[in-house]
Amino acid sequence: MTARPRRLLLPGLLAAVLALSACGGGGGAAAGGDAGPPQPGGTLRFAVGSDAGCVDPQQVGSNDTIYSVRQLVDSLTDQDPQTGELKPWLATSWETSPDAKSYTFTLREGVTFSDGTPLDANAVKANFDRIPQIGARGTLPKGYLAGYAGTTVESPTRFTVSFQQPNVQFLQATSTHSLGILSPATVAKSDDDRCAGVIGSGPFTLQSYTKNASIVLAKRPGYAWGSSLFTQPGEALLDTVEFRIVPESGVRTGALQSGEVDAIGSIGQQDEAPLTGAGAQLQARSNPGVVFGLAFNQQKPIVSDPAVRQALLTAVNRDEIVGGVFPSQTKAATSVLASTTPSYADQGLTFDAAKSAAVLDAAGWVAGPDGIRVKDGQKLTIPVTYSPVAATNKPALELLQQQAKNVGIDLQIQEVPIANAAQIQTAGDFSALWYNITRADPDILRGQFSTAGANLFRLPDSPLQGLLTAQAAEPDPAKRTALVAQAQQEILAEGVFVPVVELTTVLGVGAQVHGITFDASSRIQLHDAWKSSSA
Asked: What is the C-alpha end-to-end distance of the chain, expressed in Å?
């Protein structure tokens, strides 16, 4: 029954597929074109802009680090980036209960972790039992297992995962890196020890990790249980993959132009012409999930005022930000969800500075001598926290800062290390966050904006909460799509989030590199990657 449960997650997918087709290198696109038969061996040198300070897939949410840790673990399922359908990986089949409260999987036989222990039903149970206990860095997998009631092992290859309430998003979650399966020995370690090194069953193993410097992977000998979406059977083709942490965008671009590295991430607008001029390929795919925008801690002064949040919603000239900062493949946000997300619904976001001014006037915010508004002696100043995980973050915020100032709002940009971001969010030590999160399922809205979970943004109870709960329990695709559309509308109506731009993953890839592919979440898969012998 492999295909049947996946149909629960397909609403809105046609629009997502159409959007992907215009992205210049869709989910299945591989760099390098037709270069003849793949050649094994060699080292791929990949420069990224940041390091999350952790190499545990279950505790990492930053794309730059996900690129590497995704290669260390296998998942129960894989998601076709072109159709959204779930495909076999570690699980050969699965069944869903009629009430969507339990899921029974059958595992393939013969899979082992790199320490030699078997990947069986007990190992999966150990992972799922441990995830709810992970600390602040484990927000993603804990959200996917919300309401987890336990895993029952029926045999070494058969088990059932149960939830306290219907949980239709769980199947798609099993395809993510966040629910990638780690060895029982790794699972038993402390959160911090896991961040220093993990053991998985994936096509690569962790050879070394030096914080803020490099993550080096080595091919797993004997690997023979890849995803059904991989094009090459058996072991990975590359011998090693070296991820170098290079924060400066210009330095990454120069390294690819000179041949010092083979591929780079976090491409800025200014990098496009130099890279294409040097013969590099630009591989791009829009990330599904919550777009980049401003999220607010509604227990903080200023942003607790809904008029301020509503004014920001129309103060943003999204087209100006996209055209001035981002690569040409990038789209302005049209909803809190990216257009590649199932059940996305265009919310018709508009730029209207006059409307923003009117909203603030009506709420009693009066322009001061410097143009910044004041109410009850308090200036309309909002600290905005961000992490430098992409070259575009700071210039985008600087342009947003100018636009907000035009309506009397003073945004103060504050940079924090990516390694501290999760703790800052969990502690609520922010007023506004420059924020996004990737996932190819609309339940990402519940994971981020539900008061029943971590409630990172300290939201009050509202009509939004009922919609988020209802869509998570609705097995009918059309009804779920309607609920998700209402949730997107309500998020904007309540000023919960100010969407700005769809995150688009753009890679610069040398002409000698082939077979780098995007998965359904626009993260890279390197099992099929290889380099020409001339490299």
From this structure: 44
Which among 226, 215, 219 has a CA at the least distance from the CA of 75?
226
Q: In this predicted model, what pLDDT tens digit does every residue of 293-318 receive, in sequence order? A: 999 999 999 999 999 999 999 999 99
pTM exceeds 0.85, yes or no = no
3-state secondary structure (DSSP) of residue 57: helix
Do strands 432-438 and 381-386 pair parallel, antiparallel, or not at all (unpaired)?
A: parallel
> Containing H/E element for 505?
strand 504-509
| Strand pairing category for 530-531 and 77-79 | unpaired
Q: Are 245 and 51 in contact (CB under 8 A)?
A: yes
Residues 159-218: tens digit of each pLDDT:
999 999 999 999 999 999 999 999 999 999 999 999 999 999 999 999 999 999 999 999
Q: Which residues lie closer than 8 Å to 256 by C-beta, 6 or more apart? A: 47, 262, 263, 264, 275, 278, 280, 508, 510
* Residue whose token pair is 């109506």: 493
Nearest to 183 by CA among 122, 134, 225: 122
Q: What φ, ψ does residue 97 adopt, rounded to 5°? A: -70, 155
Give me the sign of the Cα torsion angle 215, 219, 223, 227.
positive
Which residue is it, tokens 């049209």? 334
Q: What is the β-pairing status of strands 381-386 and 410-415?
A: parallel
> Low-confidence residues of the chain, pLDDT below 70?
1-34, 534-535
Number of Cα atoms under 13 Å in the Cβ half of residue 530 = 18
Structure tokens at 123: 């190992």
Q: Residues 201-236, buried b or exposed e (16+ Cβ, 10 A)?
A: bbbbbbeebeeeebbbbbbbeebebbbebbebeebb
**405-459: per-residue pLDDT in tens?**
999 999 999 999 888 888 898 899 999 999 999 999 999 999 899 998 789 899 9
Look at strands 281-286 and 504-509 and give their pairing.
antiparallel
